């Protein structure tokens, strides 16, 4: 299938009092329709920035993103985002949160009854049919994230963007959510870009894993094709040599090749991380 | 069997005594201690009052004030009886005139007796609520606008900071002159004194609401703003669906602060504007200078305090009803 989303030579600079800070340099990635792509890298390496550029929340300093032959200039529901912290409106119930999105996207094309059915369908898809009328404060973190996914799916996006969707969840809940996501993916065959820092998650869910080098001026270090048959089961894959091979490649990249121009390769990953964190604080200030 | 029932009954009775103890403790804490506080205050007041001689006699103690509460209520009752009698007389007279001359158009004249203390309480409440609601109508849209636009916020902030600490007494002469100049109807809907007091209240209680609304709106989580962007909500829908509900807790905190300010300002404004409310009552009693005046003023002070407290509680209840974020409500 052809290329749906073309991220073409994207540079991203943020102005700071000490001059521009280059977060991304020459990010070039083509995503096919129905493909599940993970972006992996150390925290603060600019993965979220890539996602925000695709979402249209940031404008690239150089280069651009083309979706279906049209350049992206602003955010829109055809690139729905699942945020890391669910970002549900706390004063609305799960149903009403999805309703807000559905009304905005299908308000003119669907009837009232069709919209209601569509909202309920999406909530059932993420197994939230039983708690549709609860508010975010009344449900668990995993359930909130399910509603966030339902909201994004209900917009019928061309590309679904997920920013560490399960990062804030405990391991058991995370595994459940990954299984749910694979189920949904098998049914809908969405085009997905997901950010993660979890190697197992990336290998289990993705068709391709995009490994990013550390910032500043982060870029794509390596792209790994995951040729594991679907449906995938985490238990069976645990002993699969291919799975473990992919896993090892990603881990190796993250531990050794995470920085293109690291002068002292002996430095531990932890050092690298703290070094970057001070940088990102400067950038925020 | 016996041993097991014994082991159950033991912690149960222990629990019961704990419950009793808690009940006893809270009875002391919430009833006995405050009551003692009030009692000590009354004793101190009474003892001190006796030693203060004013040109209007001794400063009133609690007993004298209590007596005036009764007197004020009786005056009110008597005035109501007079008014009823006045209207009854008119109706009898109209009926008589109508019997003599069937073409007569009956007229009812309003009773023009002096407002009683109770009437004045209601006037004050109506004035404060009008001024407060006018302030709400201005402050919330203004606060939302300044919260959304950093430029507008920088433009308006100095003005807010300068006007916020201004005393109502400084505004009042200006308000009076402007109202006199602009409000020139031959058949006025409301008295000028009412407008003067109301507008002064508005000018003074506007600011806490503007500031709180603005801070609430500016502090909306960026994720929620991003949701709005991804959904491409129109500016109007963005305010309606995201901004307004998100800042409701802060807006209500501002409203509660403002209502407190409004009630304080009102009494001063009424004194000078001669709006027939509690402020005017205090002023008139002061000018009157009878031997009861100080006790009547003290009675008004207590009523003003109680009403202020009740207004705050009412606002708190409203806040609890309207706010989705129950944790943000403080007592």
Automatic annotation (TrEMBL), chain A:
Any one of the GO CC terms: plasma membrane
Residue ranges of domain ABC transporter in the record: 7-239
Major subcellular location class: membrane
InterPro entries, sorted: AAA+_ATPase, ABC_transporter-like_ATP-bd, ABC_transporter-like_CS, ABC_transporter_ATP-bind, NO3_transporter_ATP-bd-like, P-loop_NTPase
SUPFAM superfamilies: P-loop containing nucleoside triphosphate hydrolases (SSF52540)
Membrane disposition: Peripheral membrane protein
NCBIfam families attached to this UniProt entry: ntrCD (TIGR01184)
Protein name: Nitrate/nitrite transport system ATP-binding protein
Protein's organism: Microbulbifer rhizosphaerae
From TrEMBL, chain B:
Species assigned in the record: Microbulbifer rhizosphaerae
Stored PROSITE patterns: ABC_TM1 (PS50928)
UniProt cross-references to CDD domains, sorted A to Z: TM_PBP2
Topological type in the membrane: Multi-pass membrane protein
A GO biological process held by the record: transmembrane transport
Subcellular location: Cell membrane
Protein name per the record: Nitrate/nitrite transport system permease protein
InterPro entries according to UniProt: MetI-like, MetI-like_sf
Pfam families: BPD_transp_1
Top-level taxonomic group: Bacteria
GO CC annotations, alphabetized: plasma membrane
Predominant localisation class: membrane
Annotated transmembrane regions: 27-47, 121-148, 169-186, 198-221, 242-273, 293-311
Alphabetical keyword list: Cell membrane, Membrane, Transmembrane, Transmembrane helix, Transport
Annotated ranges, domain ABC transmembrane type-1: 121-315
Family assignment from sequence similarity: Belongs to the binding-protein-dependent transport system permease family.
């Amino acid at each position: 299938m052809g290329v749906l989303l073309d991220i073409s030579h994207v540079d991203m600079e943020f102005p700071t009092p000490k001059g521009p800070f280059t977060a991304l340099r020459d990010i070039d990635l083509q995503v096919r329709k129905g493909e599940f792509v993970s972006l992996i890298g150390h925290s603060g390496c600019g993965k979220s920035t890539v996602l925000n550029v695709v979402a249209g929340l940031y404008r690239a300093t150089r280069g651009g993103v083309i979706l279906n032959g049209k350049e992206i200039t602003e955010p829109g529901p055809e690139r729905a985002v699942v945020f890391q912290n669910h970002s549900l409106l706390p004063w609305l119930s799960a149903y009403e949160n999805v309703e807000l999105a559905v009304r905005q996207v299908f308000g003119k094309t669907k009837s009232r009854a069709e919209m209601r059915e569509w909202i309920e369908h999406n909530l059932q898809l993420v197994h939230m049919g039983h708690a549709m009328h609860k508010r975010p404060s009344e449900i668990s973190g995993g359930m909130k994230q399910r509603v966030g996914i339902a909201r994004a799916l209900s917009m019928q996006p061309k590309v679904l963007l997920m920013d560490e969707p399960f990062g804030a969840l405990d391991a058991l809940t995370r595994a459940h959510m990954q299984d749910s996501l694979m189920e949904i993916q098998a049914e809908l065959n969405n085009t997905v870009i997901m950010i993660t820092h979890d190697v197992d998650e990336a290998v289990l869910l993705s068709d391709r894993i995009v490994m990013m080098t550390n910032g500043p001026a982060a870029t794509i270090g390596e792209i790994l094709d995951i040729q594991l048959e679907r449906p995938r089961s985490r238990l069976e894959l645990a002993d699969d040599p291919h799975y473990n091979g992919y896993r090892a490649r990603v881990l190796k990249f993250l531990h050794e090749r995470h920085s293109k121009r690291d002068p002292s390769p002996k430095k531990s990953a932890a050092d690298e991380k703290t070094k970057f964190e001070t940088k990102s604080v400067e950038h925020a200030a | 069997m016996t041993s097991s029932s014994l082991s159950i009954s033991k912690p149960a009775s222990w629990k019961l005594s704990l419950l009793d103890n808690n009940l006893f403790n809270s009875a002391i804490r919430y009833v006995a201690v405050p009551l003692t506080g009030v009692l000590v205050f009354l004793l101190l007041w009474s003892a001190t009052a006796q030693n203060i001689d004013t040109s209007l006699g001794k400063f009133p103690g609690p007993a004298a004030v209590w007596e005036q509460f009764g007197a004020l209520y009786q005056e009110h009752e008597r005035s109501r009886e007079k008014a009823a009698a006045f209207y009854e007389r008119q109706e009898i007279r109209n009926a008589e005139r109508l019997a003599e001359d069937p073409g007569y158009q009956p007229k009812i004249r309003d009773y023009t007796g002096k407002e009683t203390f109770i009437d004045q309480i209601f006037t004050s409440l109506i004035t404060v609520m009008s001024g407060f609601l006018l302030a709400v109508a201005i402050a919330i849209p203004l606060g939302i606008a300044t919260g959304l636009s950093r430029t507008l916020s920088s433009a308006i902030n100095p003005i807010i900071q300068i006007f916020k600490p201004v005393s109502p007494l400084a505004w009042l002469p200006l308000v009076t002159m402007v109202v006199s100049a602009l409000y020139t109807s031959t058949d006025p809907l409301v008295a000028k004194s009412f407008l003067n007091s109301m507008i002064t209240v508005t000018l003074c209680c506007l600011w806490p609401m503007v500031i709180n609304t603005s801070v609430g709106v500016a502090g909306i989580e960026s994720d929620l703003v991003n949701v709005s962007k991804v959904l491409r909500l129109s500016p109007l829908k963005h305010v309606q669906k995201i901004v307004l509900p998100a800042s409701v807790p802060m807006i209500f905190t501002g409203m509660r602060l403002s209502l407190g300010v409004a009630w304080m300002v009102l009494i001063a404004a009424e004194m000078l504007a001669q709006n027939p409310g509690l402020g005017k009552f205090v002023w008139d009693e002061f000018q009157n200078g009878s031997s009861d005046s100080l006790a009547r003023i003290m009675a008004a002070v207590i009523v003003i305090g109680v009403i202020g407290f009740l207004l705050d509680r009412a606002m708190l209840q409203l806040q609890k009803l309207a706010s989705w974020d129950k944790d943000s409500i403080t007592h």
